[in-house]
Amino acid sequence: MHSLKVLILEDHPFQLMALHQMLNANGVFDVLTADSVEAACQTLSRRGRVDIAICDLQMDGADGLALIRHLAEHQLAAALVILSGAESCVIDSVGALARNLGLNVLGCIEKPATSLVLHQLLRRYLEQDHAELPAAGPPQYPQLLNLTTAELAASQEQWVAHYQPKVCFDGKLVGVEALVRWQHPSLGILSPAQFFPLIEGAELFDVLSWHVLDQALAFSAQFQSRTGKTLPVAVNIAPHLLQRDDFHDQVKAALERHAVAASALTLEIVETAGNTLTNQQLEGLLHLRILGCQLSIDDFGMGVSNVQRLLELPFSELKLPSEFVRGMAHDGRKAAVVAGALMMARRMSLNVVVEGVETADDLLAIKDLGHPVMQGYFIARPMPGGELIDWIDARNSAGCKQRAYA
């Protein structure tokens, strides 16, 4: 971890020294320190962007919120750790605000920090899949900024689907989620956070969505041909696509083109306020549900219109985001939210998928609340189709008993 650059905002000398020593013990030696927001801003101005900012909240003068906003507005930190002696509800609310501002929040923890917790946060950053981060700001690679819309469209064959497994507690694979990557010939594998702003600016999001859907269905068909078994696939759909009158027809045509059963496809919709559907468009979704497709509300609980959308649209599944799951084993408030969502889902006859399962503690906490389907780094990272086949074969060889989580 020696290559990481970390900024600490902490006005208590002993705690500042302790954090510095813990970072050193974890192999991080490029450590910037500041005892005020003003000093932190000056340091960032001199030394530039950091990998991780560790931010206290309660300080003399400007509080930590001022630095958090500064980090977000000027994109000066790839990730943020909030470390404070404030009430846990305040810390969590600050974390939610930071995410809304576009920051990647690694953790919201109460003082004092321990070396083990700090190590876990550093490891999380190094292993993090930035496909799940908000696409705020320009791409990291300046050479991409000069691409024309035509050149971007011509690169779509380099947009490849990676697949993250979804499993039950007994270890059974129940499906995969397709997540796009740009396999750039000179820059390597790029995550969505690195190129989505370009795609949106060029108004190619529809092209990208249909391209990933087509790849996912093709892979499911290949899996069926190879194994004789159905591989359910989930594909993210931009909410505005639902407003297209031909959405239902295009999805149905793609299923027929690849000879994939409608029941093997889940369309994941990130709910957003202001995306109302006409009766004709709602009828199109109902046609897909009648056909057998599944409809999932993604990032449930992160927006303002979730419950309303659940009542309006024919969802069959809800997905709980990693923000609720991460650290749930040690946070009763998060556990209560997840338990409430699971209870509501059962009463509405909805399936539940829990995202962001990163540790054994997270998994055990979920087990205490029921046995929903899970996905996350503790299970497996997103991977190319060939690697997924190898992963499935290895699990089958190991036997279900060895891979069970129950």
Q: What is this structure, in a nutshell?
A:
The protein has 406 residues and is α/β, with parallel strands linked by helices.
The name of the CATH superfamily of the largest domain reads EAL domain
Write the CATH architecture name of the largest domain: Alpha-Beta Barrel
Order of helix and strand elements from N to C terminus? EHEHEHEHEHHEEEHHEHEHEHEHHEHEHH
Distance between the termini: 34 Å
The total domain count is 2
Total helix count? Answer: 16
Biggest β-sheet description: 9 strands, mixed
- For this structure, what is the CATH class of the largest domain? Alpha Beta
Q: What name does CATH use for the topology of the largest domain?
A: TIM Barrel
Uncertain runs with pLDDT below 50, 5 residues or more?
Answer: 129-139
Q: On the 0-100 scale, what is the average pLDDT?
A: 83
Radius of gyration: 22 Å
Helix/strand class? alpha/beta
Keywords: Phosphoprotein
GO molecular function, one term: cyclic-guanylate-specific phosphodiesterase activity
Protein name: EAL domain-containing protein
Organism: Pseudomonas alkylphenolica
Can you walk through the features of this model?
The chain has helices spanning 13-25, 37-47, 64-74, 88-100, 115-127, 149-154, 192-201, 205-227, 247-258, 279-291, 306-312, 322-325, 332-347, 360-369, 385-398, 400-403; strands spanning 5-9, 30-34, 50-55, 77-84, 105-110, 159-167, 173-184, 188-190, 233-237, 265-270, 294-298, 317-320, 351-354, 373-374. It is of the alpha/beta class and 406 residues long. The chain has two domains: 5-128, Response regulator (Rossmann fold, 3-Layer(aba) Sandwich); 132-403, TIM Barrel. α2 (37-47) packs parallel to α3 and α9 (247-258) runs parallel beside α10. GO terms for molecular function: cyclic-guanylate-specific phosphodiesterase activity. Keywords: Phosphoprotein. Residues 143-396 form the EAL domain.
